[in-house]
From TrEMBL:
It catalyses: L-proline + a quinone = (S)-1-pyrroline-5-carboxylate + a quinol + H(+). The lineage of its organism: Eukaryota, Metazoa, Ecdysozoa, Arthropoda, Chelicerata. The keyword Metal-binding does not apply. This is Proline dehydrogenase. Belongs to the proline oxidase family. InterPro entries: EF-hand-dom_pair (IPR011992), FAD-linked_oxidoreductase-like (IPR029041), Proline_oxidase (IPR015659). Pathway: Amino-acid degradation; L-proline degradation into L-glutamate; L-glutamate from L-proline: step 1/2.
């Protein structure tokens, strides 16, 4: 363990580990090299390859009163060119006009391969929906592994970004940013989190400041669909609608246009494929 720790302190070894791994496989062969790794680096950092092989390690730690955190690592070698080819199409939306998008939510080619800026960060590159289904199967296996290894007492934290197109997450982030901007325009409150606004106050601002006809049936229904906390304060959107198969995301994120008074999507419409 001390030898492995010392070797990991040398930057030249850490930064060139892909080359060293390829060299080791070529010199020692696949089987011998794998055995050497299991007795050194792999053995120090990896509990096992599957649910069965991790159990002895977890049982050993449990005997000393030490609980475990299982960190599943699914990796794939992708070149920078492949990363850009995968990332840029997945970040683009033909209906999403650049001049209608907050700049921080616009895909930039120079940042398509984020690994070179954050080498320690795990980076996900969208390929297709079939690959997302494959990732979901992996997640389910991880949950089963946690349940089996902890006698159904553990829990699993799943990062859901690998289950869909990154552009959808960017658009949801844009929804939040545009909602804050919309809220500020109407109420004049800069910090939305501090703006304790009731539906009546919000309706008053729309009616008096922007002359939006709040007695319109469409606007009335919009107010009815809002979420409210226990204090009666409003949430602009019902986020629970995201998991309701009966709702379209485009219909969920609508607000009254401050000029026309008609309900319009706060972001550009999603394609049928993205909705699905």
């Amino acid at each position: 363990a001390l030898v492995v720790l010392k070797l990991c302190s040398f930057d030249i070894l850490v930064n060139n580990h892909p080359k060293l791994i390829k060299f080791g496989r070529r010199v020692f062969g696949e089987n011998l090299f794998k055995w050497m790794l299991k007795k050194s680096f792999y053995g120090q950092f990896v509990a096992g390859e599957n649910e069965v092989t991790i159990r002895p390690i977890l049982d050993h730690l449990r005997s000393f009163g030490v609980k475990s955190i299982l960190d599943y690592s699914a990796e794939e070698d992708i070149t920078e060119e492949e990363a850009i080819d995968h990332e840029m199409p997945s970040q683009s939306n033909a209906d999403h006009k650049p001049d209608d998008t907050l700049i921080q939510y616009t895909a930039q080619k120079e940042f398509a391969d984020r690994r070179k800026y954050r080498p320690v960060a795990r980076t996900y590159f969208y390929m297709n929906e079939a690959n997302c289904e494959k990732n979901m199967t992996t997640f389910l296996k991880c949950i089963d592994a946690v349940a089996g290894a902890t006698l159904h007492t553990g829990f699993a934290a799943i990062k859901l970004t690998a289950l869909g197109r990154p552009v959808l997450l960017s658009q949801l982030s844009e929804v939040i940013a545009r909602t804050r901007k919309y809220f500020t325009n109407i109420t004049g409150v800069e910090k939305m989190v501090r703006g304790h606004i009731s539906p009546e106050e919000f309706q008053k601002h729309l009616d008096q400041r922007f002359k939006v006809k709040t007695d319109n049936e469409e606007i009335k229904n919009w107010f009815k669909q809002m979420d409210y906390d226990r204090r009666g304060l409003m949430n602009l959107f019902s986020w629970n609608g995201l998991i309701d198969m009966e709702h379209l995301i485009t219909d969920l994120f609508k607000v009254p246009n401050l000029t026309t008074g008609r309900l319009e999507p706060i972001i550009s419409a999603l394609t049928p494929e993205e909705e699905e």
